[in-house]
Amino acid sequence: MNFIERLTEAAHRNKSLVCIGLDPDSQLMPRNRSVFEFNRAIIEATADLVCAYKVNFAFYEAMADGGFDTLKRTIRYIPDGIPVIGDAKRSDIGNTARAYARAIFDNLNCDAATVNPYLGFDSIEPFINYRDKGVFILCRTSNTGALDFQSLRCDETETGSHALFELVARKAAIWNKYGNIGLVIGATYPEELKIIREAHPDMPLLVPGIGAQGGDLALAIRYGIDAQSERIIINSSRQILYASANDDFAEAARRAASSLREQINSCLP
Prior knowledge:
By secondary structure, this protein is of the alpha/beta class. 43% of the residues lie in helices and 18% in strands. The chain has a domain at 3-14 and 88-249: Aldolase class I (TIM Barrel, Alpha-Beta Barrel), CATH 3.20.20.70.
């Protein structure tokens, strides 16, 4: 079963387009829990409410000791029926990219990864060659600094002027020979999300920016779903993980995830 099939199955089973980002921040977590204990409690409380989990490597790489082991233990603890997105944003020359791909897909056994397209096709090809895995290319990210480059107009003599993020999406579509490429599009830029979905109706979209970053959920759903009201992954991290800073954090996370699922489903046609 490939990534898209696993994602679709989980979304149907749990009636959910919610992805929870397992991004442990020691400044926000309860003081009496280890990172793995915290993640385990979140997973146990929410596994029937999500279509995927996303692990942001930065939070584990920043740990003084044992971060990689905690990352591996967390991924292994996620139930088999829930796909795991390794949010690593990797990119490098081909030889190094192959090592990154092996680390994420073979060693950690993630079902998908986020990658940066700035170095071009040969930096992403090793990920794409894992045909059963998902590859989410950064296209229109949710941060304010995205405006520095992603909205720049690029002149093309035959097709006119396009924003850089549009050209990234077009390249991704060309590279998508195995049907395993998706795009990262922030909910904080709904008009750009609409442009990408209209141009690429079948491509899966990973949509961060809901919650703490202030993205418009209703617009993200309206503009981001495909013709079957699918192929969109709404990620939320801080809003769910830190719904409570007390010992009831897992119960609070479940309530927040359930509420987000209900809000999303209420926006579906």
